[in-house]
From TrEMBL:
InterPro entries: Pyridox_Oxase_N, Split_barrel_FMN-bd. This is NimC/NimA family protein. Residues 4-88 form the Pyridoxamine 5'-phosphate oxidase N-terminal domain. Pfam families: PNPOx_N (PF01243). Gene3D superfamilies: Electron Transport, Fmn-binding Protein, Chain A. It comes from Dehalobacter restrictus (strain DSM 9455 / PER-K23). SUPFAM superfamilies: FMN-binding split barrel.
């Protein structure tokens, strides 16, 4: 598992920021997966966040594990493949309580480009670009 997916999975809750016009919006997320060598998140296509991501795919994510935190900056794109949704469900079984692979609601998005840094009060940042 790549270090970004591992960190976000260990955090359990991380925060995703989008922009709607000139207004930022931040929401808690908890589902992350690695598929096809890429980092994925998911959401419901009926939510405002999905429309915001289609209009402006730039996002930032932040989360903490112990005394370390991550800042992930990048762009996302929708992956329409059912295999990608299944990979998300396998990595996050609780999603099956909310979605089905073919329900027409669940959308998985992957980072097309991103830079992450893992920070700590006691060490230099670890930077990762993918």
């Amino acid at each position: 598992m790549n270090p970004i997916v591992q960190f976000l999975a260990d955090a359990k809750t991380f925060y995703l920021a989008t922009v709607d016009g000139d207004q930022p919006h931040v929401r808690p997320f908890g589902a992350v997966a690695e598929y096809d060598g890429k980092t994925y998140i998911c959401t419901n296509n009926q939510k405002n966040i999905f429309a915001q991501l289609l209009k402006n795919p730039k996002v930032e994510i932040s989360g903490m594990v112990g005394d370390k935190w991550i800042r992930l900056v990048g762009e996302v794109a929708v992956d329409p493949r059912p295999e990608a949704r299944e990979a998300m469900f396998e990595a996050n079984p609780s999603l099956r309580n909310m979605y089905k692979c073919d329900d027409g609601l669940c959308e998985v998005l992957y980072f097309t480009q991103a830079t992450a840094a893992i920070y700590s009060f006691t060490a230099d940042p670890v930077e990762i670009t993918f």
